[in-house]
Fold each of these.
Amino acid sequence: MAGSLVQGAVFTVMVVRAGMLRDPGFEFELAGQVQRSPRFFLNAPVVLDLKDAEDFTQAPEFGEARRILRRHTLSLIGVQNATPAQLDAAAAAGLASFAPNATQTARPRPTEAVPAPHHEAAPVAAKSKLVTQPVRSGTQVYARGADLVVTAPVSPGAEIMADGNIHVYAALRGRALAGASGDTEARIFCGRLEAELISIAGRYLVSDQIPPEQRGLAVQIALVDDRLTIERN
Amino acid sequence: MLTSGKGGVGKTTSAAAIAAGLALRGKRTVVIDFDVGLRNLDLVMGCERRVVFDFINVINGDAKLNQALIKDKRNDNLYIFPTSQTRDKDALSRDGVERVLEELKDNFDYIVCDSPAGIEHGAITALYFADSAIIVTNPEVSSVRDSDRIIGILASKSRRAEHNLEPVDVHMLLTRYSLERVKKGEMLSVEDVREILSIPLLGVIPESESVLRASNTGTPVAFDQESPAGRAYLDAVARFVGEQREMRFVQPERRSIFRALFGRA
């Protein structure tokens, strides 16, 4: 798969405890060490250990830590033992997340052996958008990052879109576009299929392409093998 | 106010008839033409030879309201407020319209506004201050779609919508209805239209030769006691003011006509 693109590697990286950065004696000690072995410390990568650290929940704090370390020619590249809030702030500051190394015990956390990436497409956990009035011709409704539920008819000439699923508990006569940001798992459910156009993640069928025996029925539309399939509910 | 989206469906005819119907019930009524540049209300009301000042003159301060209002010769309760034929809809300013409507409210029980067709400035200005809207619709696919559009616009661009007040009271008036053609499957039925538009039905006005006669003689069809359309308008007015009236000229129809027209398989 991606074997040739990414390879595993092992590095030795220095770990600095977050608490130490606040310690006035620390910089003095560190300056001394760097002076004794400048080539060793020049641009050396450092991971900030956030175990037991209450602060570092804002990106600028990491910026400040980075600057402190830079003064001693060290390069802050990541964090370990971070809480979810700290991870977010670290990511915003451009820092990587490291698993707790083998010589330490990790801060107990229910799910994270490997911290989850932050910038994948948001899972559809946002509150569904609910529309209870008829969606009139010429109207556009978009449920960003969520499902769309409509409990009234959708007129011809109206457009309803959702990043998630679309549920219409009435006649669907306009255009419905589910998985609008690319989610191929999204589905369309409707009480009566009379749509002008149906689409999931960019694949679409116009009214003419909908089999006549399925028009006017309560159906579920899904994307299977890159083709839209329509099934009776 | 009367609106439709689509042109030629019977807004002006209906505005005239409804205003006449209200006046016949003793309500002080003024009917206003918002179709600047394409004015018809004065013709349909039969007062085109008495127009001196118009809506735009009053908005611009060139004339006072009572100089522009024309009293109907047939009924003391009925007044007409014509608009300009030489200007166009850009001459309508929202502030000007608001001032005029406020002044009219002091003197009249009902202000009936005849909107132009379309969804641009002219139509939007006409619907902006509405408390009630009557959506004039023909039982025909283009008209139904345009009516749907204008209902959506009322729900989002009226003053009530913008200020989050109680929504405009919307009703449907189905005009040019022919029971014969519905039975033959050539025309959408009341149920078909009601299902698509999902708004309360104020009335069904049958197709009638008396309407053309009324326009050409400058007599609102509601004054014509023998015309079925006239009687249907009077029923609609009765319902509008809260009375119960049975729908005439209509029978329960089969829904399959709707499928046949919309399936297009």
Amino acid sequence: MLAERPRSSVADVDSRAPSISIRGLRVAYGRTVALSDTTLDIGPREFVSVLGPSGCGKTTLLKVVGGLIRPTAGEVRIGNGTVEEARRRRAFGFVFQDATLLPWRRAGSNARLLAEIIGGKALDQARIDGLLRTVGLAGFDDSYPSQLSGGMKQRVAIVRALAFDPQVLLMDEPFAALDALTRDRLGEVLLHVWAESKPILFVTHSIEEAAFLSDRVVVMRARPGRVLEDVQIDLPRPRLHEMKESHEFFEITRRLRRLIDEAQATAEEAR
Amino acid sequence: MAQRLTSLDAGPDAPTRNPVVAVLRAVLPFGFLLLCVAAWEAVVVLLRVNTFVLPAPTLIFARMVRSWPEIMSNTVVTVQETLLGFVLGALIGFILALLIAYSRLFEQVLYPLLVASQAVPKIAIAPLFVLWFGFGIWPKVVVTILLVFFPVVVTTAEGLMSVDRNLIDLLRSVSANPWQVFIKVRLPHALPQIMAGLKIAITLAVVGAVVGEWVGADKGLGYLIIFANSQLDTTLSFAAIMVLVVIGVVLFVIVDLIGRLLTPWNQVRTIDPGM
């Protein structure tokens, strides 16, 4: 552990950021192979998206990395330790497609949930308030989830995941249920609070979203799920909205779309 | 309750602001009840129905006033049996639900047994309870418990077990212990369903106490009904039934109110703006 440095902002660059190494991963449920021979490295401050057709094992991969599913074979290492060690020191911040907020807790209290469960130094109310402001939820602490829009609920879920300052962010199609405008906006909010401070593994089925947010996009194919191609996204950071109209962006999305088509074709052959 | 609208929300499904409609809504159930009673009175008077068969509401009310001390003393007994049976039954139901929710073995072994217990007609086994527990309050309480625990078990167990899989995963991801999962998520999640179970249970509790009294008692409203019937005193019998109805409704309203206080988030409703 390094000595505590004074924090300049909630999105302070954290030197604890670990790299993630995934080696020869295989997950099988009986005869069904959800994930096969998957090898992947994620840098300590890298934003990596996993893109692929449904049934390609994207979510399975995310849950294995987060220690929620045990792999049949292969290994994941978080920094120098195992996934189990990382999970025990609360290294993972999860965000799912549904915000899964607790309807009886108000927004601020929902954002606090995981930090509260961990307790001790993880429960830093100033940090949580700062995050709520950053994602644009200032003044909504006292609202029940039933009073919030889908996008606002997902903002709370993001704050909840970041509240205890986890070392790794694992996101499973976090914006898939939102309308296109909200989705774009939240992508930018995510980049802002992330501030290249920790590795993110981001599962999505949106090509544009993956291209805009990521440093690398891993395209997967289905039946069995495995990595088809690992695409480097050479767009500068910070990412700006205008980049979506650039020639480079267009080239990237075209390439990703071709890869997805290929992934789908091979999946259909395997049927 | 603090209500804040977001620009995306269409608005709260609040009680209507129109005072005339609000008053009408509050008065309507009573108005309908009054209408039914008036119709009853009219039928009895116009068709000259014998009092042994069906006494007029005014007659029942007059009897209620005249026999008030007798009715009151029996009411106290029945309410005591009802409340004791309800509390114990709810407690037993809650503990059984915990066992079912947390152990597959209990779910497989216990649940069918509990369902089977509900198929046994309580009136048929009530005499046994008199044999086992004597003439005091306990046989009545036991019958009440038997009626009360079941809806509580079913609703509580379902509530505890129906938590979103992702939410449980989320808690696992920060190594939450089982007590934290229970107290922070499972129990509050189950609360609205538990309260629904308790609302069913409280009405059954009154029935349980009366059935218990029918089999062997020398006091209580159930006893009073049996006694009145044996004297062909239909008016007194109806008076006792009316009091039972009032007890049932009042207890239900109390449980409903407690439920509303315990689940304030359930009372805040906005029209879902869609995801």
Amino acid sequence: MLGIGTSGLQAFQRALATTSHNISNATTEGYSRQRVELSARPPERAGNSFLGAGVQVSAVTRIADQFVESQLRSATSASQQHSVFHGYAKRVDSLLAEADSGLSPGLRRFFGAVQDVANDPTSNTARQVLLSEAESLVDRFRFLDQRLGEQRDLVNGQIASTVDEINSLAEALARVNTDIVTALGRGGTPNDLLDQRDTLVRALAERVNLTTTEQEDGALNVFIGNGQNLVLGSRSNPLVARSLGEDPAQLDVGFGQSSPIDISRLITGGRLGALLEVRGSVLDVAQNSLGRTAIGLAEAFNEQHRMGRDLDGITGRDFFQVAQPEVLPSKQSLVPPTVTISDAGLLGTGDFRLVAVDNGEGDGGLDWQLRGVPGGQRIGDPSTVGLEIDTDDISGAVAGDSFLIRPTRTAASQIATVIDDPQAVAAAAEGGNVGDNSNALALGALQEDRFLAGGTSTLEGSYNTLIAEVGTRTRQAEIASQAQARLLAQAQAQRESISGVNLDEEAANLLRFQQAYQAAAQVVSVTSTLFDTLLSAVRR
Amino acid sequence: MRISTTQIFQNGIDTLQRNQQQLNRTQLQLSTGKRILSPSDDPSGAVQSLQFRSGIERVEQYQRNGTMLEQRLNFSETVLTSVADGLQRVRELALQGNNATQTNETRGFIAGEIRQALDELLQLANSRDANGEYIFAGNDSLTQPFAKTTDGVSFAGDAVQRSLQVSSVRQIQAGDSGKRVFMDIPNGNGSFVVLDGKENGDEVNKGTGVVSSTAFSGEWPGDFTVEFFEDVDGELMYLIPDPEDPDSPLLGPQSFQSGQPIVYAPEDGDFSIQFTIEGRPADGDSFRVIQAEGQDLFRTYSELADALAQPVSGASDQARLNNAVNRALVDLDQGLGRLLDVRASLGSRLQAVENQNRINEDQLLQLRSTLSEIEDLDYAEAISRFNLQQTALQAAQQTYVQIQRLSLFNFL
């Protein structure tokens, strides 16, 4: 009987300790409440019957549901992805459309100044104002591009630090795996280690979308991308963040230490997924689109300006200067092709890759294939996308080599005005006198001329399209991020509902176990009284 | 559902956060007066508002162009009014000078005044606007268009005059070239002029024949001369000699009657030339009939002044003067007609600018009100939303505090 009483004392002490543990960890992130599982000890046989032998602690279980946990993980990935994406998109969104910093006011003032020159072609003031407005417009292009570039730098920096975080989390996870496997080997469940592991996996899921499988020995394997094993048992395979394509300034996510393969395209979800997506679908598009507007302005304005005659009777020169397409080789040793813009009106907002393939004739000759980036669609004739590519200039290439062609990426950052003399504004038509404004009128008409995007868009229209695109993406991201936040809250609520500590519940348990402990102590005390009674009876 | 303590806190905080976000957004809307705070709030609305803004600025620019154009046209109009006034005065002087009561001296004064009027006309024709541009120089607007030469006044400007853009589809010419206003004005009746005397100018008529009304139709046959002579009977005859064949004249000889029209309209020709000579030409007098050509107003003035300055002694001088003044009067009327044409066209352009300004004004109003509909905040709705959100936030704060007080541990 003493044994029974003692077993109760011991069991309730454990229960009280576990309740205290729960209370202490009520606010610990990722903590799953624990419960002492009590069971009756195996009974003793006494003749025809079994006598109860007291209570024992069969296990301290951790109340958790792996299904709910994995739901929470994927909700975390998705929610992080959308909210990070939304954050960046919103910044670009406001930047582009801000009444004072956007491009539209600059474009309008510039063309207003062109018309003022048309009103008064001999006025030096009007011409000077036009040059200043051109300078402001060019500054506006550069400013916007610079701000987008800053966002790009920020994104690249975040990609690097997120990859670092993923690596250290993966390493920690691998260590915890080792500890768990060891603990399980000794028998018993290491509840708090399991919590720690779930927390680590969730932290990983915040950064990148992942899948997990549990090994038989209790270790958890983590996969990302399309099956790259970030954590395999007690080993973690770090990711690398560095340039793996033609552009040395663009950070890619690589898997494998010695010769990493580029898995950027395969990464989805989490912060890393969001960062890669922002870069590809917002920043690339925005900078390209801005560049396209810059090229469109420069080419159209230059062309018309060259048809005119300036105040000194000299044929108009180029008004703006604009960058040629950027061509980046996959190997530094390659001599790139000459790429020029054949028709600014046909330029889109995408990039291209020129890939060398064996011509299949067995003579080692190469065919050059042009493909869209992103998307990879084949482009037969470069002139359909407004480009002229002279592949004869290429040398040193073998099959598999490639060039990344960005027709418009750097245009907005490099547009400049060439003319600095007000007299050199060609307001008159060729053969016209100083007071002639025909060319200025023609230049002014460019404002409403739809010569971009295959003749469908005006200059301002092409910029507005960008605003609408980014605005729509931002709006979608906002809605998705709100929806995902709700889903995440639900998943969290579900996890909390199962694994979270409720202090009132613990208070009640505290009372319950305290009372049980007191009762068990009474049993010991009664047992002792019984023993005393027996002893005194014998002594007599 | 079981609920954890963390959850209770978290729910409370989430609610507070959400309410605060909403309240903050409404507050921002109220303080900016804008419904759309960033394009993502309403991408198509945001782009629309940009388009409307751009439309407004364009129309405003057209308004500016219109004002500029109006100024220029008004200035031209003012100058041309002065030119017309001067022309009228010269016409009066010509009539005065034609009067037989004038003496050589008084005619000299009149000639002097006409020469002054010529200087004035030259000044007006070289008018410059506020920007220093010569308004009648066409597009060569920085070079003085009219200058005196030994041979009258020359035009160094451009016949083309620039146009200004007053709407996306409309350009209006900003003024008129001096070439059209002052030069190239047809003389005579627009078809031909009858000059008295022989071609070399030395041999003047000795009679008193004065050319009056003229008429023409058909194709110009080429310049010719009408020669007067007295036949054996002493009767005054005239004929039009054929320079190719002196023996067979083109017309005549016919006897002359003062005031009877001389008609040159051969049956095999496709023209009819008619003019009247009053008075009595002398034997050997001749009148040259030459095709009209463009003449400038300056020449008309100076030739008139020259004719009036020449002293008159005797009937044939008077006839010569009358002929010259008559020709000048016709030419002045031609100039006046041209001036009227130009001013009428200026007036209609001014009218067009004004109409366009009105249209632009209407368009601006419409654009602005549509823009306001797109991007401006409905204050009544926003304020009531603000109140509602405020109440919701207060309720969330109060309930949060209440809930936090509840704990079983309070009773242990």
Amino acid sequence: MLVRSLRLLALAVLAAVAPLAGGSAFALTPPPPSLAKAGEITFCTELGQPPAAYISADGMTSVGFEVDLMKAIGSELGLKTRIVNYKLAGLLGALDSNKCDAVMATMGVTPERLKRYNYVEYIKSASGLLVPRGNPLRLETYEDLSARRVAVNQGSSNERRLKEASERLVKAGKPPIDILTYPTYAVAFRELEMGRVDAFASAALTRSYYLSRSSGRFEIGGTPIPPNPFGIMLRKTDIEEAFAIRDAWRALLADGTVQKIVSKWGAEQAGPLCDGYCDHPGASGLAGGVEPPKPGEAQVTKLPVRFDVPFFLDFVFNPSRALLQGLGLTILAAGVSLACGASLGILLAIGGLSRFKALHVFNQVFVGFFRGTPVLVQLVLIYFGLPALMGGVDLFPATMNILGLRVSGALVAGILTFSLHEAAYMSEIFRAGIQSIDVGQSEAAKSLGMPPGLAMRRIILPQAFRVIVPPLGNQFNIMLKTTSLLSVIAIPELFHVADAVQSATYKAFEVYLGVSIYYLVLTGAWTLVQRQIEARMRSGSVKAATAPGRADLAPLRR
Amino acid sequence: MARADEAAVAVSAVRLRGVSKWFGSTQILHGVDLDVAQGETIVIVGPSGSGKTTLIRCINRLEVVQEGTIEVGGEYIGARMAGGKLVPLSEKKIAAQRTRIGMVFQRFNLFPHMTALENVMEAPIHVRKLPRPQAAQEARALLAKVGLADKTDSYPRELSGGQQQRVAIARMLAMRPDLLLFDEPTSALDPEMVGEVLEVMRALALQGMTLIVVTHEMGFARDVANRIVFMDKGVILESATPAEFFSHPKHPRAIEFLSKVRAGPAMAKTEGDH
């Protein structure tokens, strides 16, 4: 289970590129010239949403209901099918930047998306809530989720619907919905399993799959979102390609291929199939009033390159409340992690230098592990892995009481992970600092009757700090950036908020550049502070340098 | 020599029995026996590498001996007797024992992040638990005693070698030790500063404190020591009064050593001190 989560979580934008089934020699539906020339059709999807599209247990084979459909479409067009894996929130950015020809990833049709993309609608599926068995909180509609915690996939249409429902609740004077957005369905479901959320919102196809795997512990609380079309998405300019896929789809429906795939995956209950435009079966056009190109008509091949300057300036200089809160959370997480990491690091370093073998070995193992594994792996290991290991005792419940403050368990897990990770680096930095101090200093302290702890605290550490401060500053700089990984566990820090804006507006470049500016300001400001501290220390050390004046003349001690 | 030792045993401040020390597989000390009487000033001399420094570092347990026992003021250092066996003491207990044994190092080892006054006050405040004003008052008096009343607020870096070593002596005295160990206290000094440090040491010896000094300053040995201990290759070869040792050395290696230091430039300088 853990290994599976780790894999599904991998944030690497391009986790798997899987060339699939070769094209059939006999194209039944003529491919558009652009695709015929390439000899293949590339789909972007998110291979973390079983049963539609996921990676099988071997860690490399893409399987699923939609994967089979994508392959069938490729064959029908006489093309090779290539499937590229992105997390859901990054799929449309991948399409915009020509990483693929089409996206098939259980993407619901929304008015905003229709303005930017062509849709070949293939199914109508209802959305709703998966809840613990017996539905103790009686969660049936999205409005019932007021003041409740709900998991949803980041960038999904259900995320948008939940936000709209939450705004309606707030307008009606009720508490908002606590919406937690996760990069994959698997992670969102894991949160429900651990009881960290009250419900999991998704489309029927996904929901029924998880229902079947939950051994009766969950049920469908309600299906408040009526059946809504899902479609294969293409760039607005790729009209010819959209109609080629639509025609291939119709051919696959006509010869029963689609129905076979549906029954193979038990997806009948997902909803009724469509033939390209759900509301108008047999229509010549596609949703959004897209008509097939007339023969001989010149096709627009490219959208003009556009950088939305007003949007960008607004994003950066008129930040939303959420973005500012994200910025605060980033600074808080980095600061607390560094402080805890440094404190723990001192103890670790002293343990590592101790004459007690057990402490020394512990230091070696600890430092080896936390320096030798990626911090992202450590994060999911602690947040998802530890509670699984503890047999259902969740160390990081939805909210925790820390020193009288109500804190999100995910944030505690994140800070704990970063603190441990930081402590490993700090331990090495402190060890080097302590070892840089002349042994004569600790001998002088000993000869005055100072016990080891007092000598460390009063004599060694104050001198070691001069050596330690510069690398300590660098660690904080790194930590400020490392916090962006918290987005994986739905902590609304700076990057998570920006990512949400991106997946709602599709302005990937503007948003990511904007958030980069925020990080640059943070790290830049810290660099200035660090220089000040170091300059002050240098002026202090003119008075009190470590080396006594005549040390070079001293013969070596026996 | 043996007679001189027996006379000293009456009030024994330090007693070493069969002390052996190895660094790895190299044996540095070979079963050393030594008795130092209360109020006595012992100067240990010998060629470099003879184990002099190691010997006095063993006395306050900066080095741990593998064989033999060391007693200071009638108490075993680093161990206690339990049921006829020596049992090692905890670091805390050893630290408490060290408060009674002062040490001055060749390279001063002042705390560079503290002023002269803070260097002297540090251990009284944190080890003797003196209130700060009282520690400051005592520290000022000690700095005045070593002739540095005007340097209390100077950092070690701002002081000459001789001044630093005098601060180190004041720092040691602030713990009110019963036994003072000096490990080549003038070896790292420029020649013109050697005199001021030896002067302070001479004053301490005259006050009746117990001193064990490792030094190459033969003038100091001759004038101040009650007894000279000559070591070579980890063994004490001769123990005699300065008069006996310098005029009638008995052991062939002592004779050889003395002829060398008399011929050497260091001796010429020390002679000039007279």
